[in-house]
Amino acid sequence: MYCILVYDINEKRVGKMLKLCRRYLNWIQNSVFEGEITELKLKELIHEAKQFMDVRTDSLIIFTSRQQKWLDKQIVGKEKNELDNFL
Questions:
Q1: Which of 11, 15, 75, 87 is most solvent-facing, going by the fewest CB within 10 Å?
Q2: φ, ψ (nearest 5 deg) of residue 86
């Protein structure tokens, strides 16, 4: 599945969340990640995030779609992290 993940985490924990999300998805902008991920890997990511999140103040928002082709994406201005499809 294709996933867009956005987080709002306290400064004390933001470094941990950044490192965690980079293991699973592609960083595209401050606190925003996207990419293909399996349902199991997404569950792992959420489980690991909950280990250090304070659910009273922190948030993790996840949008999923079956495939990237079902999602229209428009960038206005500079793209923070240009992703390419070259291997």
A1: 87
A2: -85, 140
